[in-house]
């Protein structure tokens, strides 16, 4: 082994050792403003029951004071809610008829949940929740709720629009680079004490000059396209709605009217649509066969947009050269799933939209929306998914 190689390996070990230390994190200066915990008055005097469903922070909960997206952090709104006389139940226990969520359904006025540990609000649960007024998604994507049942019951469904779009766009850019540079096999080599440059280089490419297409160019899709512009790629997008021509020109992306016509042009496909009746299972065997052989797919939207088996098959036979993002199977990924053996795929627990910056944004949004809801006010700048019995147009 050359001296240089040894040095490089020592450096890697050092980096890994540093990053696994678990000391309390000093919050970064540029993270969004922490929650304002000053009390506003409960003007109506009505006492509400709010149920929050989040994942448990466990031993990580105390390591960062800004880690508000877990059960222990409770979005940082406990003191504020309780000072106004409201009851705030927070739990991670959400599945089955014996769960804490289920036990608190019958008199809950508000349920807050996140896509990272979703409380499935089914038609059956909505029937039991006689007092339910508001379902808030701390984040974006409300497909864990039976939206038609919520509309029929007159329950408002809203999400904190834009709260984590930067986190997702950055994450997508990272995943594209990880896949195109064949990063993961190299990482595994280093961790396993191997060093074989050829085994990485034979399928590592530059992003420059490649064609990247996003399926869905809403808030996240547009941010991703903006971030890709300096990489000098050919940018394409498919969406129900065409962008304003000025913005399209500024971003430098070409609109594709027909998804089937866009797919064969793309070296990289990124999926950025919500999960709806139109997009569920959209990437099935047929759609994937329309993609270029060797395509890389990044899906930071929902796993159910993909036909898991079709993606796994296409990865196995090389039609898809790399996939990163969600697929629809129970987490953690089963040990014997073919996914584990793909040469180039990147899957992590669902963290793309739940960075600390995002948590502080959606926590502040939830606080503001609750405050206004209790005052009988609207929050027009947020995405209403269901309002006054009507589903938002893209969910119909
Ligand atoms: N992985 C994560 O942590 C996160 C994932 N998401 C997912 O990303 C999705 C998109 O988020 P945003 O960009 O903020 O939403 P958005 O509402 O701003 O954009 C969605 C875009 O998809 C388009 N669209 C919807 N249905 C379509 C269809 N059938 N065909 C073509 N285009 C269609 C819409 O016209 C819109 O431009 C969310 O619904 C959520 O599922 C969002 C945040 C975090």
TrEMBL record:
Residues 174-352 form the D-isomer specific 2-hydroxyacid dehydrogenase NAD-binding domain. It is found in: Mitochondrion. The keyword Protein transport does not apply. The keyword Mitochondrion applies. InterPro entries: D-isomer_2_OHA_DH_cat_dom, D-isomer_DH_CS, D-isomer_DH_CS1, D-isomer_DH_NAD-bd, FDH_NAD-dep, NAD(P)-bd_dom_sf. Keywords: Mitochondrion, NAD, Oxidoreductase. Residues 81-377 form the D-isomer specific 2-hydroxyacid dehydrogenase catalytic domain. GO terms for molecular function: formate dehydrogenase (NAD+) activity; NAD binding; oxidoreductase activity, acting on the CH-OH group of donors, NAD or NADP as acceptor. NCBIfam families: PRK07574.1. Belongs to the D-isomer specific 2-hydroxyacid dehydrogenase family. FDH subfamily. This is Formate dehydrogenase, mitochondrial.
């Amino acid at each position: 082994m050359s001296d240089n190689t040894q040095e490089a390996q020592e450096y890697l070990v050092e980096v890994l050792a540093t990053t696994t230390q678990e000391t309390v994190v000093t919050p970064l200066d540029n993270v969004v403003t922490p929650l304002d915990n000053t009390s506003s008055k409960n003007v109506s005097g009505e006492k509400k029951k709010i149920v929050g469903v989040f994942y448990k922070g466990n031993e990580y909960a105390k390591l960062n004071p800004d880690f508000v997206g877990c059960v222990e952090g409770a979005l940082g709104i406990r003191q504020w809610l309780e000072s106004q006389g409201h009851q705030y139940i927070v739990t991670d226990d959400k599945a089955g008829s014996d769960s804490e969520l289920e036990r608190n359904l019958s008199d809950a006025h508000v349920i807050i949940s996140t896509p990272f540990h979703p409380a499935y609000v089914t038609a059956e649960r909505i029937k039991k929740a006689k007092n339910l007024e508001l379902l808030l998604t701390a984040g974006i994507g409300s497909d864990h709720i039976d939206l038609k049942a919520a509309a029929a019951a007159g329950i408002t469904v809203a999400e904190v629009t834009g709260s984590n779009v930067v986190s997702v766009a950055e994450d997508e850019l990272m995943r594209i680079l990880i896949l195109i540079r064949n990063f993961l096999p190299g990482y595994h080599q280093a961790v396993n004490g191997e060093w074989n440059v050829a085994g990485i280089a034979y399928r590592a490419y530059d992003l420059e000059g490649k064609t990247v297409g996003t399926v869905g160019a809403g808030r996240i899709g547009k941010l991703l396209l903006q971030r890709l512009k300096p990489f000098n790629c050919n940018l394409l997008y498919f969406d129900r709605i065409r962008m304003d021509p000025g913005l399209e020109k500024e971003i430098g992306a070409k609109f594709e009217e027909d998804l089937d016509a866009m797919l064969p042009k793309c070296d990289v496909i990124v999926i950025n649509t919500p999960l709806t009746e139109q997009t569920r299972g959209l990437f099935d065997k047929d759609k994937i066969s329309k993609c270029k052989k060797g395509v890389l797919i990044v899906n930071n939207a929902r796993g159910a947009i993909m036909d898991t088996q079709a993606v796994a098959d296409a990865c196995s036979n090389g039609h898809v050269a790399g996939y990163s993002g969600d697929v629809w199977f129970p987490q953690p990924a089963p040990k014997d799933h073919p996914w584990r053996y793909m040469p180039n795929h990147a899957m992590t627990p669902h963290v793309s939209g739940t960075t600390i910056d995002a948590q502080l944004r959606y926590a502040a949004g939830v606080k503001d929306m609750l405050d206004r809801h209790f005052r009988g006010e609207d929050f027009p700048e947020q995405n209403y998914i269901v309002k006054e019995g009507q589903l938002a147009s893209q969910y119909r």
